[in-house]
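Colleagues,

For the teaching module next term, I've prepared a clean inverse folding example: a structure given as tokens, and then the sequence designed for it. I'd like students to try predicting residues themselves before seeing the answer, so please don't circulate the second half yet.
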């Protein structure tokens, strides 16, 4: 687990070694995508509305868009997967402001 991931989920590498994914980040939607990628060895397209998760930490809510990518050997054999998290908190805040503005303007 890289330092950015440690900061996002609030756990360090030493505390997660040997744990199942769901013990670290309790997100069934991510686990399902990981499972599909592990079974097929291919990246799955996930609807944009379904690939954003919220993480609450220290009284703040942050939003992350996730992607699951397979890691393959030269011969194409699957070694594992990588979970990418992109912080989209600012975009979510702007969407909320836009919706509130449209609702206020329509009344």
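(Answer key — instructors only)
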């Amino acid at each position: 687990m890289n330092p950015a991931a440690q900061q996002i989920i609030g756990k360090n590498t030493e505390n997660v070694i040997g744990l199942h994914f769901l013990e670290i980040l309790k997100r069934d939607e991510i686990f399902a995508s990981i499972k599909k990628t592990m079974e097929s060895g291919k990246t799955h397209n996930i609807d944009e509305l379904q690939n954003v998760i919220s993480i609450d930490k220290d009284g703040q809510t942050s939003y992350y868009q996730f992607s699951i990518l397979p890691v393959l050997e030269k011969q194409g054999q699957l070694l594992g997967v990588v979970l990418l998290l992109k912080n989209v908190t600012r975009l979510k805040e702007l969407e909320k402001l836009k919706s509130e503005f449209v609702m206020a303007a329509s009344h």
